[in-house]
Amino acid sequence: MTPSTTGRAPRRLSGRSGELAVLEKLLALLAAGHGTTLVLTAPPGLGRSALALHTAEGHRAGPVLRTTAAPAERLLPYSGLHALLCSAPDALPLPVRPAEVLRSGLAPAALLDLLTALGARRPLLVCVDDVHLWDPRSRAALTFAVRRLTARAGVAVLLTATDGRDGAHGRNGAEALSGLPVLRLGPLDAVAADELLTELTPCHIGSAVREELRREAAGNPRLLVSLVQHLTSRQLSGRQPLPHPLPGGEDLLDAYAAPLAALPDDTRALLLLVAAAEEHEPEGAGADAGLLLRAGRLAGIAPGRTAPAESAGVLRGAGSRIRFTHPLTRRAVLRDAPLDRRRAAHRLLAAALEGPDLALPRLVQRACAADGYHPALADALALAAVAPAPHADRAGALARAAALSPDETLRATRFAAAAEHAWLAGEPGQARVLLARVRTVPAPGHAHYVRGLLALRDGPAADAGQALLTAAALLAPHDTVRTVHALLGAAEAAWAAGDARGCLDAMSRVPASPDDPALDRYRAGICALLAGRPEEGDTLLRGYVARVMGSGTADPGPGHASDPGHDPAPGSRPGPVPGDPAPLLRAGIAALVLGEVDIACRAGARALAAVRAHGPDALLPQALEHLAYGELRAGRHARARVHAHEGLAAADRLGQRNAAAHLHAVLALAASAEGDARTCAAHAQAARAGAGPHGLLHATTLASWAVARAELAVGRSAEAAALLAPLVGPGPRPGHFASRTALVPCFVEAAVLAGRGADARAAVEAFAAWCARTADPHAPAQLARCRALLAPDTEAAARYEEALAHHDRSGGDFERARTQLLYGHWLRRRRRPRAARTPLRDALASFERCGALLWCDRVRGELRAAGEPAPANPAHTTTPAAPLLLLTPQQQRVARCVAEGATNREVARRLSVSTRTVDHHLRNVFAALGVRSRTELARLLAAPGPW
Description:
63% of the residues lie in helices and 4% in strands. The chain is mainly α. Strands 2-3-4-1-5 form a 5-stranded parallel beta sheet, sandwiched between helices. It is flat, with a radius of gyration of 35 Å. The relative contact order is 0.04.
């Protein structure tokens, strides 16, 4: 298939829903006789012309005058107005002939009268594309008229122009439109760019190719279309390497290069230096002004020659940095410069980068000036790409070293190393692009290692585990550090997938290290637990936690031996380094397994601090996830929510969908305790949507737990029990092996309230065995509560009192309030309403203190049933429907449940009353409301009204 047949024209405007809504409102107002004015501004290629055309085609209520400026006619007076009037449909009589306008001109006041007269007949849309390129007299007349059109004139004016901030031509023309309402278009985001790519071609586009196309297009839809149209189907699918540089977009780059021709020669030479200097800088960071001054001096350019470019809107200065106003302007500068001039600019910059601290950028500039393979320079770059240089800089240097390496095997190794540093820098897309340039068969173990890391954070857990096991086998003879990291990553993937056997297999392969006995304890402890030796595992993990948390806090700095991005010497082994986030994250996991929730929170906080201080950025979502989950287990739901939201933002920014799924699950659990049902359901759905395709059983289990707990909060115990029952049983059940015990208290409560107490006894015995060895401060109270729920009446009260005594020692408002709620409910059901009110009042106060809105409503219902008025909190409730005002509080609850479709037996279970009581209340409801059936009741309560 030839390149010309792989692309097709897009049928819709991707990523412009907000702009389209604004334009649709403009048309709706115009159809109603109300005119308005709007100026769409954007750099070339962002779709302002497409939006203008879409708007013109969408106007059905009247005529349209539409034209696009012709740059060749901008020196011809009134050529713009002539073209606009020539676009009038035949059915629209004009009071002036277009030819007369071209010969004699048209006064601004006359144009105002003309537009007003046309709009008085039928709603008129005036649309001028690229108005900044009109001749000055036409533009002045139009802007004069536009500013004086009234809203009732029945004329809407839509203009498009460049805003002058991107360096494209027409800066003065755009300034002539100042004061008019402006809607500035931004670049497409990654989601919109993906949608456009999918629409552009029927071919499958490989993930690395997508990343490269998105990066090259910089959010410009026109450039993206052109790039796709110049590639073959094999190149798009990734089966054939992409050309470098990518072809396409020449006409668009011409638009960005056009204003540069009017700049002085020395300014254009300085622009080339600015563009070349950004090669060794992070994307978007610009160039160092001091470096440009030194390089300019070497080139004989006087200081201050950036001023013409800044006046033209091509450059902007900010402190010690100088940047192009648009990345495509930089690309246009490099494209238009001959190859020998580009290389000369890089050599000047290399000469200006003096000093030992600038060795890496100096080598990068020398590499940019190199002609063909250069083994010595490639070796020097690889040796310089070490700490303390940031991971992004090391990735760029190693990629250039790979390109300069003639040996195919060495080139593949260096591309893989560059990909690892790109991933650690938080650039997974760039990592995939670099991995795609590894062409050796078989691929080196380092490439499998990076591929596994990428999948671990944003891919199927099973794929990640297999890639990391393959990497460990290939790396074992010569790279012990990455072998250990690969096996620990494979164990993490198996853990996330709920594969206990796979986790045990990966952990058992981790080689023993005499240099790091703490890691040996962790490995042996996890293996003992997974092999069914809990006492041995607990002892080993306690030793590991004590060793890591008791170690000093010396600052290792980036690039230490246990940093996975550090390039170790061949055969080197991992060693303990205080302050490294990886051991702290493992200590947090071990502490949670042991039930030491406070220690888990401290370990998570220290790991987060280490990541923020030294990186790598790729670990930030994981550190926040671990800390948020530890705080959730400790009952600190508000703190967990704050850290989970921050982690979710970081995961979205870094493209880590697996971490996002786990964080959504944490937020769902927090909302089920201290939030509302809608928020809980939204986060649970997001967690399942992300976790399901990637096989993340841990996230789906937590999401199901959250939904079940929210069901319990509103009294739907049968539904909660049905959700939890498959998750807590032993054997190959749908639940995660490490989360079963945490779910038991919720399951027991739901099962007993739903009349399935017999199903919960086995789960309580397993929970009791776990409580005997865990340090979880909430476990004794939860166990006593579970036993109270299953105890005969003669023992239940003592069990509840025992649970409350444990709560006094462990703290935590939420769990204590749940016990008080169940105790009060039990007392009320034993016809002791006066005694029930005390624990119920305490439960309401505790739930209100921690913001558990769902649970507050349930307690208020219990208090009302116990004979104590408990009005709903006006801050989070609404006025009941008018028919319900005729009913008592208990009758309202019965009516709502029946209207939702519940049977009398289900209502009885939900409200913890007998079916006879439900029958009694339902008869009274029917009589009070004048209905004769459940269907009529549902219709009555669903009907809209003035209430």
